[in-house]
């Protein structure tokens, strides 16, 4: 492996995603990039590990590997099996679509960065807001600049950065960058019921376009005003503010 820091790149859209390639290309100027990604799309698999069957690794080219598992599997295999040295940075993306608010709990893109963080490696998750066709140039450029800063300055302990890039008109740029907190979805009829030709019901999850709660300072608010959203996500999910209210539940046992 060559000179410079090792940068591990993964995603949940699969090894052949254009967003993954754009990200790897952009990060190449800052270190030795190794791509380890699922061999097929693994969107919305969250932080799942494959425990009930063996995993296989296919080397598709120099520093480019496909794994028949989840994004979390990819990070684990990369760090413990594939890479000859520990990566200085994990970058996951560029996801085809947003990862905002509550959606990060489902996201394979964010979970790859989460696994890197659990392993003590500074990690970023990069997503391009919008729908096809995607133009990843702005997102890739921003990811490369952010990666350089993180390599120089590191991140707070147990914290990953979840980055969402707004969709802008051709020739335009985002209005700026905002440090944000996670927003909240406004959930409606997220399941669509249909009838197949044999008269049996079947269901699609995620049927309608969901809105979000309009609150200043959130990732949703930043994207809605054309800003890049950078959300620091901490791995400690404990709600410390609830201790006093819940103290009575723990007494008397």
Architecture overview:
- With 253 residues, this protein is an alpha/beta fold.
- The chain has six helices and 13 strands.
- It has helices at 18-27, 71-82, 108-118, 137-153, 219-224, 243-246, and strands at 6-10, 32-38, 57-61, 64-67, 89-96, 123-128, 159-165, 177-179, 185-186, 191-195, 201-205, 211-212, 228-234.
- The chain has a nine-stranded mixed β-sheet, with helices on both faces.
- Helix 1 crosses helix 4.
- The chain is globular.
- The model has no long low-confidence stretch (mean pLDDT 91).
Brief descriptors of the model:
253 residues, globular, alpha/beta, 9-stranded mixed beta sheet, 24% helix
- Strand-residue proportion: 25-35%
Number of helices: 6
Q: Quick one: overall form?
A: globular
Q: Give the oligomeric state.
A: single chain
Please state the CA-atom Rg, rounded to the nearest Å: 19 Å
- Averaged pLDDT: 91
Count every beta strand, where a strand is a DSSP E run of 2 or more residues: 13
Q: Main sheet?
A: 9 strands, mixed
Structural class: alpha/beta
In short:
With 253 residues, the protein is of the alpha/beta class. Helix content is 24%, strand content 26%. The protein has helices at 18-27, 71-82, 108-118, 137-153, 219-224, 243-246; strands at residues 6-10, 32-38, 57-61, 64-67, 89-96, 123-128, 159-165, 177-179, 185-186, 191-195, 201-205, 211-212, 228-234.
């Amino acid at each position: 492996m060559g000179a410079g820091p090792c940068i591990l790149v993964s995603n949940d859209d699969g090894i052949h995603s254009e967003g993954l390639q754009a990200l790897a290309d952009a990060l190449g100027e800052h270190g030795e990039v190794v791509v380890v990604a699922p061999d097929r799309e693994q969107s919305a698999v969250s932080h799942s590990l494959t425990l009930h069957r063996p995993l296989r690794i296919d080397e598709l080219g120099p520093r480019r590997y496909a794994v028949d598992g989840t994004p979390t599997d990819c990070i684990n295999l990369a760090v413990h099996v594939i890479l000859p040295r520990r990566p200085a940075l994990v970058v996951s993306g560029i996801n085809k679509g947003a990862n905002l608010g509550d959606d990060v709990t489902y996201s394979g893109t964010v979970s790859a960065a989460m696994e890197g963080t659990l392993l003590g490696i500074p990690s970023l998750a990069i997503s391009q807001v919008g729908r096809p066709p995607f133009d990843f140039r702005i997102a890739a450029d921003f990811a490369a600049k952010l990666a350089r800063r993180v390599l120089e300055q590191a991140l707070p302990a147990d914290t990953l950065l979840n980055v969402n890039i707004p969709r802008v008109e051709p020739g335009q740029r985002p209005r700026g960058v905002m440090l944000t907190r996670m927003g909240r979805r406004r959930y409606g009829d997220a399941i669509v019921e249909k009838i197949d030709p044999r008269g049996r019901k079947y269901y699609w999850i995620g049927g309608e376009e969901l809105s979000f709660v309009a609150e200043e300072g959130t990732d949703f608010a930043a994207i809605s005003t054309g800003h890049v959203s950078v959300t620091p996500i901490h791995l400690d999910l404990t709600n410390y503010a609830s201790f006093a209210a819940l103290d009575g539940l723990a007494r008397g046992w």
